[in-house]
């Protein structure tokens, strides 16, 4: 286990590979652990980091650091302490929100972001997702397959206050109108069978600026990286391979993704 002390708090992370840096950010259910497969794939060409956010996994519990802005500060301090420059972000639900919060603070530090099942507004989060205890969420969202049980083994470590504080932050401040104007290439990925997050409406999808693009992965739910890792990892590597500053809409040119575009 790797850890770093940031402003007096322990932050757990894992790292693999060499090359341009990528930071993986987990969601409300789980920890860095469900990124293992994606990290292994990415590490063949990149330096992949996965961080446990405050209140999750093996990182310090501190209710004063559970807001989206304070979680984004964690990312900023981590990059500074590790001497990491411009990064690509891969974030899942909460992790995507933290990634967008970091972009709001430091857009110049982010080359691109892949945001998986990210709620664009509070009302798109299923009420059960906001209130159910963690064991119930794990079973509801991922089932009891051996792969899911292993990948989400740290879910019970989550501090419920960390979940509720971030939900409150989403309710109080809709990030998306600000983020869409900052020009950071953003790929929004949704599982077509996701019951936890309502997919953006066709109107919102059609209204995305050129540097943003949405893809829906058929046959996957809230955890596409667990439901269909081969499909997810191929999309991730294709996105990461785009030239810096390129629009993710270029992914449409690949026939294998065309049929999955909303």
Structure write-up:
It is a single chain. Helix content is 37%, strand content 19%. Helix 1 (36-42) packs across helix 11 and helix 2 crosses helix 3 (94-106). With 262 residues, the chain is α/β, with parallel strands linked by helices. The protein has helices at residues 36-42, 68-82, 94-106, 127-131, 134-142, 146-151, 160-172, 176-179, 202-206, 224-227, 229-241, 255-258; strands at residues 2-6, 9-16, 20-25, 46-51, 87-92, 110-116, 186-191, 212-217. Strand 5, helix 3 (94-106) and strand 6 form a beta-alpha-beta unit. Mean pLDDT is 92; it is low at 258-262. The chain has a single domain, classed as Alpha/Beta hydrolase fold, catalytic domain (Rossmann fold), CATH 3.40.50.1820.
Short description:
This protein is an alpha/beta fold.
Question: Strands, helices and their partners?
Answer:
Layout: E1 2-6, E2 9-16, E3 20-25, H1 36-42, E4 46-51, H2 68-82, E5 87-92, H3 94-106, E6 110-116, H4 127-131, H5 134-142, H6 146-151, H7 160-172, H8 176-179, E7 186-191, H9 202-206, E8 212-217, H10 224-227, H11 229-241, H12 255-258
Parallel strand pairs: 3-4, 3-5, 5-6, 6-7, 7-8
Antiparallel strand pairs: 1-2, 2-4
Comma- or semicolon-separated keywords:
eight-stranded mixed beta sheet, alpha/beta, 12 helices, Rossmann fold, 262 residues, globular
């Amino acid at each position: 286990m790797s850890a770093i002390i940031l402003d007096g708090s322990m932050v757990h992370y894992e790292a693999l590979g060499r090359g341009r840096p990528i930071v993986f950010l987990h969601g409300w259910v789980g920890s860095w652990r469900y990124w293992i497969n994606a990290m292994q794939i990415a590490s063949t060409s990149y330096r992949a980091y996965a961080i446990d956010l405050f209140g999750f996994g093996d990182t310090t519990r501190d209710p004063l650091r559970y807001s989206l802005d304070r979680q984004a500060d964690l990312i900023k301090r981590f990059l500074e302490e590790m001497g990491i420059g411009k990064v690509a972000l891969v974030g899942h639900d909460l992790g995507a929100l933290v990634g967008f919060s970091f972009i709001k603070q430091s857009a110049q530090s982010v080359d691109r972001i892949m945001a998986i099942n990210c709620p664009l507004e509070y009302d798109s989060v299923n009420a059960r997702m906001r209130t159910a205890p963690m064991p119930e969420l794990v079973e509801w969202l991922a089932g009891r397959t051996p792969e899911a049980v292993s990948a989400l083994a740290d879910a019970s470590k989550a501090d419920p206050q960390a979940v509720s504080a971030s939900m409150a932050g989403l309710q109080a401040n809709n990030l998306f109108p600000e983020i869409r104007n900052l020009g950071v290439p953003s790929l929004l990925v949704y599982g077509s069978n996701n019951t936890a997050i309502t997919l953006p409406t066709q109107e919102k999808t059609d209204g995305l600026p050129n540097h943003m693009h949405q893809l829906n992965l058929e046959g996957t739910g809230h955890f596409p990286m667990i439901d269909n890792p081969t499909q997810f990892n191929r999309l991730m590597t294709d996105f990461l391979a785009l030239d810096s500053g390129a629009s993710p809409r270029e992914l449409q040119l690949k026939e294998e993704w065309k049929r999955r575009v909303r």
